[in-house]
């Protein structure tokens, strides 16, 4: 029988300490406090103590195990791994003022204060200094995120931190890291390091920059690391690109360069960007067709997330529908396509499962507005819905759940339920309130709180496919 906790099996030892840490997190402060309306000199403004914000998760974890790590070497190692497993390093924003009072309970309403300056890159610098001085702590990090650091100077510090975190699995970086990072930086991150360890998940977040940042000469560089064969993405399992930028945005050329080696991706997410089209998506899908399980492409257009990026209609170099059929492991799909093939759901040999959402504007081989004007195009679309129903039924018989939704212009079709969701307010006005008679409120909407992303449409309604077809024939609604 163990004589002390240190003699317990490590799994039990770890479980006890983790339970202790979780209890400490609940007992420690969850929020930081400050003062509202701190007075300027010669001003008489009443101050109040207010909650400033939540303590960050990584800070709460560190505080929870601060006492544990001082017990002995084994506890120190466990506490370091627990507290540093995930780090979220963000740029400091805001303003503070020093109050001329030692304690909060003595605050008066007529006290003066002086402005406080804080280095916005303080967290980044201190993290780099810590990991430079202690490689053992850096090795504890498995997931790390950098938010708010977009310049060349801060990117250099970011890669300085990444070089020391030799056991990283998940990394979130600013998109500028693909411009400022060197070939050596990226090859090391992706496995060309001492222990050949590579990250498995990479997220690139893009935002619009201020003009002063764009005009800064120090930021006008591009090391083009993707052009080197040493930058190998073959060990990467998950790639996510989110957001749009007005400065050196990620483009199809970047995705095509990544696709040369990204042959083992399981997840691909390209969301909220207008600089990447279906061409870049198709290049990566072609490279990882044997392993790809989750594919998401929700581009940003002038009309919001309503439909595929219009530029893909002009620049499309390949037909992506057949490529989707060649992804045998695909289980979740959220994809924007310029058009949808008539036979996309006709192949019963596919192993698709999970949720599939396809946003499009017409059927393949037809003009973009043909669904509005051509009965033949509409007939093809109804056939696509029938094939989707047949495929879902077949997969259900095989014990696999598959659910398909198709977004066409302003409508959402649920083939399984024979339902159509959309805004029917105009149709009610055109029909003098006679159509539709059996509409009910819908809980669905493409994006946003009340309808399409960035617009003010009211809540959606839902009708059956037969009722919708009736509305089409009477010109109350249109695709």
Overview in brief:
With about 475 residues, this protein is α/β, with parallel strands linked by helices. It has helices spanning about 10-25, 55-65, 75-85, 120-135, 135-140, 150-165, 175-180, 185-190, 210-215, 250-260, 280-285, 310-315, 320-325, 370-375, 375-395, 425-430, 465-475, and strands spanning about 30-35, 50-55, 85-90, 95-100, 115, 145, 170-175, 200-205, 240, 265-270, 295-300, 330-335, 355-360, 400-410, 410-415, 420, 440, 460-465.
Q: What this model shows, in words?
A:
The protein is an alpha/beta fold and 479 residues long. The chain contains 17 helices and 18 strands. It has a 14-stranded mixed β-sheet. The protein has a two-stranded antiparallel ribbon with strand order 1-2. It has a two-stranded antiparallel ribbon with strand order 4-5. Helix 1 crosses helix 2, helix 4 (122-133) packs parallel to helix 6 and helix 10 (252-259) runs parallel beside helix 11. The longest helix has 23 residues, at 375-397. It is globular. Residues 107-112, 302-307, 310-315 and 448-454 have low confidence and may be disordered. InterPro entries: LRR_dom_sf (IPR032675). This is F-box domain-containing protein.
DSSP helical segment count: 17
Enumerate the strands of the largest sheet in spatial order, edge to edge or round the barrel.
Answer: 3-6-7-8-9-10-11-12-13-14-15-16-18-17
Given helix and strand content, the structural type is: alpha/beta
Which regions contain 5 or more consecutive residues with pLDDT less than 50?
107-112, 302-307, 310-315, 448-454
Q: How many strand elements?
A: 18
| Assembly level | single chain
